[in-house]
Design brief:
This protein is mainly β and 240 residues long. The chain has two helices and 18 strands. Strands 2, 4, 5, 7, 10 and 12 form a six-stranded antiparallel beta sheet that branches. The protein has a five-stranded antiparallel beta sheet with strand order 3-6-11-8-9, with no helix packed on it. Strands 14-13-16-17 form a four-stranded antiparallel beta sheet, with no helix packed on it. The two termini are 32 Å apart.
Length: 240
């Protein structure tokens, strides 16, 4: 224990991290002929692939929700894209998607990914990019589009066009951190530093006496991704 404490006190850690801003990752496209068949929906919701109002490619998803008078007590109509098995999005900071409102009046749409839906007002005749923060997104089961008819009570069916659903990787500005640890025997897995970053390279320099370096390893971990390396001459480079 005294030796471990002495080594920890003598240890200095130097990190350098560099990354190029990663481009968004498109995770859902509606270019395939059977795109609409991948969307589940209630009996009062109509879904089809449309060759208009696309913002990525040539097709968008057209979803028409019912009017308030037509649904009885079915006040939460929805359309849903399910993922089986669930997807791990812990390495991403947010989802963005484009929504077009063809109505002549403002319309509200809800989107849920993890947790309850968030609702957004889309101006008439305009396309709007929605940005949805991701938290605890290790097991994403679906992306769901909603309307809450009991609030707005639309007298007519409401249509939206959805397209260009993409994921934005985490960056240095994100709260979650890449963890850098040193493994036994020297430090017993002690957490040395955190670096808020995604898809970066971490260079670790450990100022440890030569005789104590045998078996010393560094490990970098971000979400479910992990990489480890031996510290040769007190130095290792880890990339995620």
């Amino acid at each position: 224990m005294k030796k471990t404490l002495r080594l920890h006190m003598a240890l200095s850690l130097w990190l350098s991290a560099s990354f190029a801003t990663a481009a968004p990752v498109v995770f859902l496209t509606f270019e395939e002929d059977d795109a609409a068949q991948k969307v589940t929906h209630g009996p009062n919701v109509a879904v089809e692939r449309a060759a208009e109002h696309a913002t990525d490619g040539r097709h968008a998803l057209k979803v028409t929700f019912p009017s308030f008078p037509s649904v009885g007590n079915r006040w939460w109509p929805s359309a849903q894209v399910r993922f089986d098995p669930p997807l791990d999005w812990s390495a991403y900071r947010r989802v963005e998607l484009d929504v077009f409102n063809p109505q002549t009046q403002e319309a509200e749409v809800g989107v849920s990914i993890v947790g309850p839906p968030d609702y957004y007002l889309i101006p008439p005749g305009e396309s709007k990019t929605l940005s949805i923060p991701l938290k605890d997104a290790r097991e994403v089961k679906a992306v769901t589009f909603w309307m809450r008819l009991q609030v707005k009570r639309p007298p007519n069916p409401t249509t939206f066009y959805f397209d260009h659903l993409r994921l934005h990787p985490k960056t240095f500005d994100d709260a979650e951190a890449l963890e850098v640890l040193l493994s036994p025997p020297a430090l017993g897995g002690k957490l040395l530093a955190t670096v808020p970053a995604q898809r970066l390279t971490v260079e670790v320099h450990a100022d440890v006496p030569t005789g104590d370096r045998e078996g010393l390893r560094a490990r970098a971990r971000l979400g479910s991704a992990e990489q480890a390396a031996d510290l040769k001459d007190g130095h290792a480079v880890l990339g995620l």
